[in-house]
């Protein structure tokens, strides 16, 4: 009787079998949820938020789907977390990592049912993961030395990443676009320098890459529309103090004339500030806050292009790209770093006017303008492109490449199976289970394409017993294809991250034997 009263009334605990059950069910159902988005023939999900706007997101990106779910199950939360980390770390493989962890747990469930201790399973998984990683390491191709080959590798990787996304129809075009953008970065992983602007209208084919930087703003009235060799001052300061604001200003005066005097003084203050700014010797002034008519007029008279309300992303990126710094005080011009660019002009995209800065200091910067039928399409296109850019920027640093299309999983499964045969004891069951979980990924790719997965995987396994084989699933023809000929490649870094994160997550969930849900804190308790 007394034991039950340790926890408060609303708290609950699940022990032993029931806890394991709850964890497995949660994790496996999450994996099944995103399973259908895997591979080139994977389908998308519509996520509708219950918020005020009832916004709708259409996406194929595992991390985006899972981020938007509100989940109660603790194991499911672990899987959501690994997909987020995968998204931040390498950008792609967010679905694969969840599916693999789910499959590992599904296999573990059978092992536990056969009375194998979770620690034994974990030890086996550890050995298997290490073995799988080494199997991949032996098979990687590294073309860093050969510029041509390396570039074609990058394009293949980009096409493979995009083939499961909305951009798959124009993947050659977008792969080329992404590779150009990343090559400009010259090996840095600063994706901030690549700006993506989404403009509804046109079709996805009308998207283009622009060297330089595009700011989504209009040029003010009566100001130069075209400036060469610009010196740019990027600022975050208030340029609206030339009028007495009606709200919040309390001034006691005895006549209307006095108000006019105060206004004149304010105006004079503003003029001095503008003169200070002009003294920097600039011909373009970009401000994050608004600029009133009076200072704008002063700038126009001085022949300076003034841009107001540039949003914060725009400002930070602009400063980064033109090599300037964001200033907020203007007393000593010599200490402020100005940004430079060769040409500022106004361009039209669709209906909108934008300002284009070309020939910027940081030659690495560029802007990708995405066009598309609707906002949903554009958002999804941006997510897909972002995945491709992340993967490419990682690959430029770590240039090891593997084939795709289920080939790496089969390679790993084969090695892991051989390890299972030579390992004595119960661990070998766990190692064998690991190999079955790996094979599940190509199986699912085939299933999503509506193919006969059992037959294909069996044939694939037979192919992989030959030396130096590069066979994988070709979902387009629905048979086994040569990945080298089809040019389906993946980055080694992505695969390694998938393998290790999934194993660690599965291991963490397997270690649990009790779930304690604590009672919510009551309002009265706080008094």
From TrEMBL:
Its main location: cytoplasm. It comes from the Eukaryota. It is found in: Cytoplasm. GO terms for molecular function: ATP binding; ATP hydrolysis activity; ATP-dependent protein folding chaperone; unfolded protein binding. InterPro entries: Chap_CCT_beta (IPR012716), Chaperone_TCP-1 (IPR017998), Chaperonin_TCP-1_CS (IPR002194), Cpn60/GroEL/TCP-1 (IPR002423), GroEL-like_apical_dom_sf (IPR027409), GROEL-like_equatorial_sf (IPR027413), TCP-1-like_intermed_sf (IPR027410), TCP-1_chaperonin (IPR053374). Transmembrane segments: none annotated. Keywords: ATP-binding, Chaperone, Cytoplasm, Nucleotide-binding. PROSITE patterns: TCP1_1 (PS00750), TCP1_2 (PS00751), TCP1_3 (PS00995). One of its GO terms (cellular component) is chaperonin-containing T-complex. Molecular chaperone; assists the folding of proteins upon ATP hydrolysis. Known to play a role, in vitro, in the folding of actin and tubulin. Belongs to the TCP-1 chaperonin family. PANTHER family: CHAPERONIN. This is CCT-beta. The lineage of its organism: Eukaryota, Viridiplantae, Streptophyta, Embryophyta, Tracheophyta.
């Amino acid at each position: 009787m007394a034991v039950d009263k340790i926890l408060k009334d609303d708290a609950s605990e699940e022990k032993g079998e029931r806890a394991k059950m709850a964890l497995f069910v949660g994790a496996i159902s999450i994996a099944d949820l995103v399973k259908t988005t895997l591979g080139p023939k994977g389908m998308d999900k519509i996520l509708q938020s219950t918020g005020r706007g009832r916004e709708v997101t259409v996406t194929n990106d595992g991390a985006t789907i899972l981020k938007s779910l509100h989940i109660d199950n603790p194991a499911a939360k672990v899987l959501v977390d690994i997909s987020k980390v995968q998204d931040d770390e390498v950008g792609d493989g967010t679905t694969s990592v969840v599916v693999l962890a789910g499959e590992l747990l599904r296999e573990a469930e059978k092992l536990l049912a056969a009375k194998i201790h979770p620690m034994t399973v974990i030890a086996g998984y550890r050995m298997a993961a290490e073995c799988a990683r080494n199997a991949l390491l032996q098979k990687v191709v590294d073309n860093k030395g050969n510029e041509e080959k390396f570039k074609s590798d990058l394009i293949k990787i980009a096409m493979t990443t995009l083939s499961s996304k909305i951009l798959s129809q124009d993947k050659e075009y977008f792969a080329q676009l992404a590779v150009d953008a990343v090559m400009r970065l010259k090996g840095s992983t600063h994706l901030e320098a690549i700006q993506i602007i989404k403009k509804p209208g046109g079709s996805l084919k009308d998207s283009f890459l622009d060297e330089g930087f595009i700011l989504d703003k209009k040029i003010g009235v009566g100001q130069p529309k075209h400036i060469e060799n610009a010196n740019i001052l990027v600022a975050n300061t208030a340029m609206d103090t030339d009028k007495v604001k009606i709200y919040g200003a309390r001034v006691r005066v005895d006549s209307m004339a006095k108000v006019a005097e105060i206004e004149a003084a304010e105006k004079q203050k503003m003029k001095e500030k503008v003169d200070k700014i002009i003294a920097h010797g600039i011909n373009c002034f970009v401000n994050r806050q608004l600029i009133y008519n009076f200072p704008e007029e002063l700038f126009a008279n001085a022949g300076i292009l003034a841009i107001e309300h540039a949003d914060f992303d725009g400002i930070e990126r602009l400063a980064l790209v033109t090599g300037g710094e964001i200033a907020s005080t203007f007393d000593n011009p010599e200490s402020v770093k100005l940004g430079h660019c060769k040409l500022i002009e106004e361009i039209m995209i669709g209906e909108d006017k934008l300002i284009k800065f070309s020939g910027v200091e940081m030659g690495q910067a560029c802007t990708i303008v995405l066009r598309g039928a609707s906002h949903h399409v554009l958002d999804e296109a941006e997510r897909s492109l972002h995945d491709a850019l992340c993967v490419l920027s990682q690959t430029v640093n770590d240039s090891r490449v593997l084939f795709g299309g289920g080939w790496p999983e089969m390679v790993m499964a084969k090695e892991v199976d051989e390890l299972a045969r030579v390992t004595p004891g119960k661990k070998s069951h766990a190692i064998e289970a690991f190999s079955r979980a790996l094979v599940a990924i190509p199986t699912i790719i085939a299933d999503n394409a509506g193919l006969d997965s059992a037959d294909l995987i069996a044939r694939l396994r037979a192919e992989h017993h030959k030396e130096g084989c590069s066979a994988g699933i070709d979902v387009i023809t629905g048979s086994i294809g040569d990945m080298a000929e089809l040019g389906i490649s993946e980055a080694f870094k992505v695969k390694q991250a998938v393998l290790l994160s999934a194993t660690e997550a599965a291991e963490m969930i397997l270690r649990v034997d009790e779930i304690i849900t604590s009672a919510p804190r009551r309002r009265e308790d706080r008094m």
